[in-house]
């Protein structure tokens, strides 16, 4: 019986067969822990179709193919396309696309997959260097994606999952939690990768909030959130005054939103920040 791609020996065999080495320019680290990979796929809510970003040599892709009706995997490294076609040849439900995920028509692809397979989720081991841009593309364009399950750098995962008044809480936390219920599933030690990174990872899951208000301009709202967190030591009044370039208006907006001028952004929930945004309109 052929071993799973995610076993250390099978990964080593594939890398040696194709003369591959992880490319730092693409943030490549290959998963070599079959327990982690299988658990990630099992918890991804990928019963219908699932989108994967950065499949690498197919470690997670293989488990997603076992659990999902269909897998669409976007890979940016042209050297890995033939590798993936070889390693995943036993699975006829995998679609491999050579394209930068940040350039795709995500709503169009989701619509296509949803019509064919019923549901669409995202499950990926995200390259550290593009984690935030990828997630925000899904946040802003993926209203029809109820679950996003991703492996990210532990520090970034903790920021997304943090609550007001917790040290890691910041703009990423508030923006993500405005649209999703965010929870950490489990930690992934650096030794679970080849090559092993200097930092540990964490698998976090975003569940789309059914009550999320999509009638507001998300780009403008997120811009405000980032402005409120621009200088963490300052009060929200001082950051808002700088953003609006108008001290009197900043006071009026905060008064209407019922937010004390002495409060700091780190103490504000996404609901507080939304009231500030609404008061500005």
Can you describe this structure in just a few lines?
This protein is an alpha/beta fold and 281 residues long. Helix content is 42%, strand content 18%.
How would you describe the overall organization of this protein?
The protein is of the alpha/beta class and 281 residues long. The protein has helices spanning 8-18, 34-42, 59-67, 81-87, 106-117, 131-141, 154-161, 171-179, 218-228, 236-244, 247-257, 270-280, and strands at residues 30-31, 49-53, 70-75, 94-98, 120-125, 147-153, 180-188, 193-194, 201-208.
Please give a handful of descriptors for the protein shown:
Helicase, Ruva Protein, domain 3; 42% helix; seven-stranded mixed beta sheet; 281 residues; alpha/beta; Rossmann fold; 2 domains
Class based on secondary structure composition and strand pairing: alpha/beta
For the termini, the CA-CA separation is 63 Å
Name of the CATH first level of the largest domain: Alpha Beta
The global form is elongated
Task: Please name the fourth-level CATH homologous superfamily of the largest domain.
Answer: Vaccinia Virus protein VP39
Please give the order of strands in the largest beta sheet.
Answer: 4-3-2-5-6-9-7
> What would the CATH topology of the largest domain be?
Rossmann fold
- The radius of gyration over CA amounts to 21 Å
CATH architectural group of the largest domain: 3-Layer(aba) Sandwich
How many helices? The count is: 12
Strand content: 15-25%
Residue runs with pLDDT of under 50 for 5 or more positions = none
Biggest beta sheet attributes: 7 strands, mixed
How many separate domains make up the residues?
2
């Amino acid at each position: 019986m052929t071993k799973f791609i995610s076993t250390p020996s099978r990964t080593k065999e594939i890398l040696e067969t194709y003369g591959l080495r992880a490319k730092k320019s693409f943030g490549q680290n290959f998963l070599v822990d079959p327990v982690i990979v299988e658990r990630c796929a099992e918890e991804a809510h990928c019963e219908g179709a699932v989108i994967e970003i950065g499949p690498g040599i197919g470690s997670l892709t293989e488990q997603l193919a076992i659990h999902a009706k269909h897998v669409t995997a976007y890979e940016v490294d042209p050297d890995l396309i033939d590798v993936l076609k070889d390693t995943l040849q036993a699975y006829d439900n995998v679609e491999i696309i050579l394209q930068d995920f940040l350039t795709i028509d995500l709503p169009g692809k989701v619509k296509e997959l949803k019509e064919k397979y019923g549901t669409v989720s995202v499950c990926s081991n995200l390259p550290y260097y593009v984690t935030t841009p990828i997630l925000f593309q899904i946040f802003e364009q993926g209203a029809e994606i109820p679950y996003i399950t991703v492996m990210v750098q532990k520090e970034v995962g903790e920021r997304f999952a943090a609550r007001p008044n917790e040290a890691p809480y910041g703009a990423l936390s508030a923006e993500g939690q405005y649209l999703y219920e965010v929870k950490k599933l489990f930690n992934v030690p650096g030794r679970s990768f080849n090559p092993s990174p200097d930092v540990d990872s964490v698998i976090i899951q975003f569940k789309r909030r059914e009550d999320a208000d999509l009638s507001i301009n998300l780009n403008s709202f997120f811009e405000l959130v980032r402005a409120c967190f621009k200088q963490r030591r300052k009060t929200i009044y001082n950051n808002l005054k700088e953003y609006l370039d108008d001290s009197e208006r900043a006071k009026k907006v905060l008064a209407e939103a019922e937010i004390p001028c002495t409060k700091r952004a780190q103490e504000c929930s996404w609901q507080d920040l939304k009231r500030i945004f609404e008061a500005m309109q």
